[in-house]
Input
Amino acid sequence: MRLREPTAADLRPELLGTAFRSPILLASGTAGFGLELLRMDHLDGVGGLVSKATTLKPREGNPPPRIAETRFGLLNAIGLANPGVDSVLSDILPRLSGLPCPLLVNVAGSTEQEYGLVVERLEESDLPLGYEINVSCPNVAEGGMLFGADPAAVERISRRVADRTRKPFSVKLTPNEGSIVESAAAAEEGGADAVTVCNTFLGMSIDWREAKPQLSNLTGGYTSPTLLPLVVARVYSVSGSVQIPVIASGGVGRAEDVLELLSAGARLVEVGTLLLRSPDDVCRLTKEMEGLLE
Amino acid sequence: MRLREPTAADLRPELLGTAFRSPILLASGTAGFGLELLRMDHLDGVGGLVSKATTLKPREGNPPPRIAETRFGLLNAIGLANPGVDSVLSDILPRLSGLPCPLLVNVAGSTEQEYGLVVERLEESDLPLGYEINVSCPNVAEGGMLFGADPAAVERISRRVADRTRKPFSVKLTPNEGSIVESAAAAEEGGADAVTVCNTFLGMSIDWREAKPQLSNLTGGYTSPTLLPLVVARVYSVSGSVQIPVIASGGVGRAEDVLELLSAGARLVEVGTLLLRSPDDVCRLTKEMEGLLE
Amino acid sequence: MESNSGDPGPLETMATLNTVEEVARGVFRHRYVAPAIADGAEPGQFVQIEVSHLAFPVTRRPFTVSRVMEEEGAFEIVFEVVGRGTAILASSIPGRSLSVMGPLGRGYRTAEGSWALIGGGMGAAGFPFLSERVDVRLAILGARSTEQLLPCEAGELLIATEDGSRGRCGLVTDLVFEACLDRYDHLALCGPLPMMHAVVEFLTEDVLERTQVSAESRMACGWGVCEGCVIPCVDGYRKCCTDGPVFPASDIDWAGWMELCG
Amino acid sequence: MESNSGDPGPLETMATLNTVEEVARGVFRHRYVAPAIADGAEPGQFVQIEVSHLAFPVTRRPFTVSRVMEEEGAFEIVFEVVGRGTAILASSIPGRSLSVMGPLGRGYRTAEGSWALIGGGMGAAGFPFLSERVDVRLAILGARSTEQLLPCEAGELLIATEDGSRGRCGLVTDLVFEACLDRYDHLALCGPLPMMHAVVEFLTEDVLERTQVSAESRMACGWGVCEGCVIPCVDGYRKCCTDGPVFPASDIDWAGWMELCG
Ligand SMILES: Cc1cc2nc3c(=O)[nH]c(=O)nc-3n(C[C@H](O)[C@H](O)[C@H](O)COP(=O)(O)OP(=O)(O)OC[C@H]3O[C@@H](n4cnc5c(N)ncnc54)[C@H](O)[C@@H]3O)c2cc1C
Ligand SMILES: Cc1cc2nc3c(=O)[nH]c(=O)nc-3n(C[C@H](O)[C@H](O)[C@H](O)COP(=O)(O)OP(=O)(O)OC[C@H]3O[C@@H](n4cnc5c(N)ncnc54)[C@H](O)[C@@H]3O)c2cc1C
Ligand SMILES: Cc1cc2nc3c(=O)[nH]c(=O)nc-3n(C[C@H](O)[C@H](O)[C@H](O)COP(=O)(O)O)c2cc1C
Ligand SMILES: Cc1cc2nc3c(=O)[nH]c(=O)nc-3n(C[C@H](O)[C@H](O)[C@H](O)COP(=O)(O)O)c2cc1C
Ligand code: FES
Ligand code: FES
Output
């Protein structure tokens, strides 16, 4: 895999059967299901939106505190809180018809079967462009990152999904366990149309004076623009070892960071923590990249 | 594993058959073999020193550039440059008799055998307190992190070392591949007296305008005080799953960070990147911790 | 879930810091000019302030709207320095321009009738705004010391300070236990969780039904997408930022909340 | 490996920035009071400056000692703003106290006889100090423009600027190709790698043997422990920070260095 010099064409990528107006995707868990952003009229210049994880049954998520800010980043242990696929189908997707960009539904499960069942249900709606299969959540006791660390499980889950949809899907991998390169190859083998590199790095923060964890779940996913070099390395390694496109996720704090990830081989780039802080900043990224490439 | 509230006693830890005057160790690769610090009279308040990796044959290391500073941290791809065990024995260790703190020699190999051979040779010197077995270097093509990701290899290498020395040794693990908890258990099973959690996280930085990597080796080890939460999480997980002591390595930027790692379960804490910047700052850590614990 | 109500939703605006006043040691009142926020805010709503344009802290910080001056297009917050973000904010000088998101959340259901307000520490920050919109007959306020007491307009004002420097020497709860709260049509309660819990434990079922609580929680987004800020409620977790921050007191699972965050 | 010579080795000292001068656009001269460094420094040595007390950048930045004023206990550096670290340094105001480590590395072997100095851009930063210690008969200096030219004391001064604003319009190398360098007992060469490589390619074997090169490399520690700063030499990699930064020109593997870093 050679490094690429990003060009204007990379800002209008065509993949997954779609012409995206920007390589920026809003990362799962940081854009809800898009309703808030739709209300805020805040989706200009954004290429697409990845929904909060959707599971078969509604999930309450982990007990609070679920959020802790550290000196240089953010820890979260939401635990896949979501209303469940029935409610997503009946209450949410119908309200998203005005969405000005494609939607990928992030799908999670605590058993391998569950992934297939959720996708099967979601096929009832035409709205989603496709799916992001989350085998990498660091914040749940069952499934999550344990699947992602095992290439055989990744392949089986990918196959299950591929058997149930003709829509494109990406498999979101974990950087915490196993080999991300092997898991990416397994996803490709199982029929994935893309891989997302990667979910959050496992982190923890302790109030040592009280010997108390900052999160009720003890550990969480750590996000920060300081992690960009870790994501660049993994995007580069995976891009060099699979044929399917790579979606980068993690570490973007500014337009240059997106260009660096594109140079490393990413075709689309998710932005999460920055979106929580400022949807306006995220909407500006594409314009800023255009400026940088001039 | 419960979180601990660090006390003054934790600042004078007793383990590996030794009473340390401080929990601070100087991390491998950031203190050379101690000669420069000895000359600078700069080892007060430091609990011990871990040498640069030592291999059987001299190693030139990777071509330059080996160092790149990113927005929030440092990338290095030194590639285990060292003069080889013969020279360490004949030229270096004899000059370290004045070292005011224990020395652990960091040992690396490109084959499993090599670890045993290097340790066998180092046994000729009484000077080292023991060894740190580096199965986790991210910057070499052979061995390195590939061993560390495979619990069976970790166990075999540990056993080889245990068979050749009665001195204590720690096995330094990788956060990049495999399961650090399983590798730690394998090290314990193989006879390790401690585990070091962990070596550097694989990172990469690209000059996207030129499509050029910042390091000749493309990827390197990324270090930064911003990674503390990642190390805290791994120290906590490993501490809860093995009986042998855990030496933390990574992310320390200030005295509070050391206390957080002690709270997570570490008994000794290595400091690397901060040492490169300021030996004085590192020497002050122990005093600062005393102040914080008052 | 948020209703797709057609209202444009919260905005990110640049607000200009206009006046800074250190009202007590470590407690600051800031006035910001930001007409979009001043016009739309309701008592009990909050804003999310980007305290630094640098990379850290990575999230905004939430503050209750303490008062609005619609003619000036300005709003005020009152805050205590408790950590890094509030320290940076406190060091701002007038003229500084900051990104502010808001107004956010659901404020008080401002009904007719008589109100009693109970506030501990910075919990009273939003009372000035509320007391402009409802008929406040009684306010019971507590603070560590007279210095930290926030002002509040009310027919009757009862005060407790921990050091006895003003009013009763003790806690807000001591005054609450003595007050005749059944008299009032509505109660507003805001303060540290243990204090609110103690008050709620004491209230009769009947009064509890008429009590609204302004809750706090660690927030990442503040606008409903991250699911980070949940408060244990009787029907499950509810988002502090969009379901609240003001909740009917009887909706909250007080025992659960105390156990997790108290 | 460093020799265990008994000398106390480099020190970390607090240095006070005393004078700031913008000698050309984007080029600054800083004078720091730090007797421990001023007393010990030799021409060609460098210092490592902690440009910020904040967490970032995580390493110091290396600068050649441009001059020392022993009576004042001060030393000077001259630097160009090329990135973040130099930008922070350039924004410092007199009176600021910074942590400086030094003097570091091996400087010029300052032998008797006549010297010729060849410097490109900031490569000439160390020449003032060197010219106080040796007999400089010729200096050939190049810069983008007259603005960026650094001063240098020498019997004869030849200048080239890329924009022709002073001296020859062209590169230092153009002047070097015409000069009679065999005449001088010692040569000192410092500048961007491609420029130094072009000069070295042109020198006769004989002159090359009398040439010393002040090398640059990305450094993490600057005091010999990290092995990060190596320069390809004929006998393998050598550390720029402790084996150099000044090397005999004939020790360097020029082709190898150009290929990797040119
Ligand atoms: C809806 C809402 C309205 C608020 N209104 C006010 C107000 O009007 N005046 C005021 O002084 N404070 C108010 N707060 C609390 C204020 O947001 C926190 O004090 C502030 O975010 C702390 O930031 P920091 O960076 O200084 O502290 P940090 O360094 O992040 O943390 C310091 C301490 O504060 C706690 N903390 C951090 N964030 C929050 C949070 N969001 N809520 C509660 N505790 C937190 C931490 O757990 C820690 O113990 C409000 C909070 C919420 C959620
Ligand atoms: C021994 C030595 C002496 C030096 N003396 C001087 C001097 O007297 N005057 C002067 O202006 N500069 C000198 N330099 C170069 C100076 O150290 C760099 O310009 C500075 O470190 C750049 O820091 P930055 O944070 O501004 O740049 P960054 O933002 O880190 O990088 C900007 C650019 O500079 C390059 N760079 C970064 N670090 C170095 C480095 N250590 N050496 C060479 N290039 C680098 C990067 O690759 C990048 O292209 C010297 C370097 C060395 C090694
Ligand atoms: C609050 C929060 C919630 C998240 N929830 C999910 C999730 O439900 N599913 C998922 O695949 N990733 C989830 N993520 C991970 C993000 O999608 C993204 O991969 C990560 O934040 C890295 O990108 P960033 O550095 O831009 O934040 C979550 C991240 C955050 C911060
Ligand atoms: C320049 C450099 C060289 C290193 N070389 C080695 C090495 O030879 N062997 C090893 O086990 N770790 C090596 N490391 C890793 C450090 O020992 C340490 O684990 C790492 O830097 C994390 O600690 P820090 O965050 O305090 O820097 C090196 C790190 C750096 C920065
Ligand atoms: S803070 Fe993000 S949902 Fe409330
Ligand atoms: S910069 Fe560390 S050895 Fe030279």
In short: The pocket of FE2/S2 (inorganic) cluster (ligand 5) is lined by residues C 219-222, 224-229, 239-241 (CB under 6 Å). The domain at 8-63+79-204+223-293 of chain B is CATH 3.20.20.70 (TIM Barrel). Chain B has a mean pLDDT of 95.
